[in-house]
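Colleagues,

For the teaching module next term, I've prepared a clean inverse folding example: a structure given as tokens, and then the sequence designed for it. I'd like students to try predicting residues themselves before seeing the answer, so please don't circulate the second half yet.
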């Protein structure tokens, strides 16, 4: 803000700075996992739908559910989170609070 004030309160800024929080893995359905596989391969929604034998609208709906579950907004954020979780499983480390 021009007057030096804050647009967001401190709690909101802290939440945004912390980044997306992962949902527990057991909440991801088989369809979610298949959608993630397609995204990780760089496939379009249409290609994922064709390959999985579902409609493009179903892919879009699943993708939006994934965004909500993982508190992400883009494919890039979603993939980053999934890669981070995989890294933590391999190394046995915990996510920072």
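(Answer key — instructors only)
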């Amino acid at each position: 803000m021009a007057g030096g004030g804050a647009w967001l309160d401190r709690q909101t800024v802290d939440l945004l700075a912390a980044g997306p929080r992962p949902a527990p893995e057991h909440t991801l359905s088989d369809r979610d996992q298949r959608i993630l596989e397609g995204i990780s391969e760089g496939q379009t929604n249409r290609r994922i739908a064709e390959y999985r034998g579902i409609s493009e609208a179903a892919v879009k709906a699943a993708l939006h559910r994934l965004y909500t579950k993982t508190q992400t907004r883009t494919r890039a954020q979603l993939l980053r989170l999934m890669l981070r979780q995989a890294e933590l499983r391999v190394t046995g480390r915990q996510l920072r609070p």
